[in-house]
Amino acid sequence: MSLRDAVPAPEWQARVELAACYRLVALFGWDDLVFTHISARVPEADDQFLINPYGLFFEEITASSLVKVDHAGRPLMDTPFAINPAGFVIHSAVHEARPDVHCVLHTHTLHGVAVAAQAAGLLPISQQAALVLGRLAYHDYEGLALRDAERARLVADLGTRSLMILRNHGLLACGRSVAEAFQGMYILDAACRIQLLAQAGGGALLEVPQAIVDGMPQQSREVTRGQGANLLWPALLRRLDRRLPGYDA
Q1: How far apart are CA 135 and CA 125, in angstroms?
Q2: Burial 35-66 (b: 16+ CB within 10 A, else e)
Q3: Sign of CA dihedral 16, 21, 22, 24
Q4: What class, spelled out in words, does domain 9-243 have in CATH?
Q5: Domain ranges in the chain?
Q6: What is the pTM of this model?
Q7: C-alpha distances in angstroms, 2 versus 64, 70, 239, 248, 249?
């Protein structure tokens, strides 16, 4: 049953964008069966966010099937679905500590986990890496994210940054919008893939000078004409409408 007429219009829009993000993650091959998660804050409700119904493939998720919970993990509407407890711990921690964050996206891509297992982390050896290093944090592995005690450490490690490598685990992207979180994850995962390919070549690696890394935020604003991820998002939705429609049900 559609929730389009059962929730406020801003919440419905947030649901559609988040469901689209889930399907885009599936389309790009970043999903891990029914595991990992993406969340979005409910507009005008700082203590509520939307997250995936546990047990559905990301390609199956719709705007109406998303589960609305509070920071204690309690569903706020009738739903036949449970939520992933690890997803709740990670996402509720970030949403509660960072009111500037609207969307939190977590993946277990093979390339991301492979770089997360490297002691040196992400190396400054590509344009993609240079674009994300200035906003990248790290969090040490503590096992499956099930314990509330980890929340404070994860938030402290993230600080004011928007991207994180969860060591031995995966990647995390935060955004002021769903589009921003998705774009951040795309670039971070691409940087990880490039690093592994470059390392597989066996030769010496060239590093991007720190002065160039420091100037990348301004260059990024120039190349997107100040639009950031909003330049990309409509095109992504058009691709999704062609290849995996139905997210807005």
Answers
A1: 16
A2: bbbbbbbbeeeeebbbbbbbeeebebbbbbbb
A3: positive
A4: alpha beta
A5: 9-243
A6: 0.94
A7: 5, 21, 23, 9, 6
